[in-house]
Amino acid sequence: MAEFNHAIDLYDRRAVEKQRTAENAAELAEETNFSAYKCGTILALGTGWANYTSGALTRAMSENLIPARILLSDTGDLLNRAYADVIYASTLRALAGDERSSLDRARELVQAAAAVFERYDHAHYSAGAHLELALIEIARKDFRGAADEVEAMHRSRGINDHRWACSAHIVMSRLERHSSRI
User: Fold this and answer.
1) In 3D, which of 54, 101, 61, 59 has the Cα closest to residue 84?
2) Phi, psi torsion values for 12, nearest 5 degrees
3) What would the DSSP string read from start to end of the chain?
4) CA–CA separation, 131 vs 57, rounded Å?
5) Which pLDDT tens digits describe the chain residue by residue (182 residues)?
6) What residues have CB less than 8 Å from 126, skipping those under 6 apart?
């Protein structure tokens, strides 16, 4: 986490230096926007992800993902913005429990992100989005939908990465556990 915070500090220092040395307002705006964009990326894919995976869900949401999504909203970086949405939706799912409206919102965000990844042929991020959709479907108790998302992971070619393959096995194990209760 210290590395992410240090990187954000460096981009802040860069912005301050550019404020001092910019030759005109347009250059200043461009340089400030660049630093804000880089901070947004670090907040989402760095500290937001780290806080989410360590279970600091409220911190991930309020201190990282909400501000990051705002910073990334007008950058034109569709892939990182979409992956920030996946991490946001993952955190939302984890916080939601079985609250249907939050799960539906998370699902919509990840479906839109998956479409971006597929449009740009980003198999790794696509597999991650389908994994998250499978977890959302399990939380929604739509086990057929979860199995369909695991199949979509396989179709994305990102499943060739052993991390996604292991995650797919874990999801299938959860599905087996749920189906034995029916």
Assistant:
1) 61
2) -65, -45
3) -HHHHHHHHHHHHHHHHHHHH-SSHHHHHHHHHHHHHHHHHIIIIIIIHHHHHTT-HHHIIIIIIHHHHHHHTTSS-HHHHHHHHHHHHHHHHHHHTT-HHHHHHHHHHHHHHHHHHHHTT-HHHHHHHHHHHHHHHHHTT-HHHHHHHHHHHHHTSGGGSHHHHHHHHHHHHHHHHHHHH-
4) 19
5) 899 999 999 999 999 999 899 899 999 999 999 999 999 999 999 999 999 999 999 999 999 999 999 999 989 999 999 999 999 999 999 999 999 999 999 999 999 999 999 999 998 899 999 999 999 999 999 999 999 999 888 887 666 777 888 888 899 999 888 877 54
6) 114, 117, 118, 156, 157, 158
Q: Distance (Å, rounded) from C-alpha 102 to C-alpha 92?
A: 7
Name the nearest CA neighbour of 74 among 28, 27, 40.
40
Q: Which residue has the tokens 């461009």?
A: 30
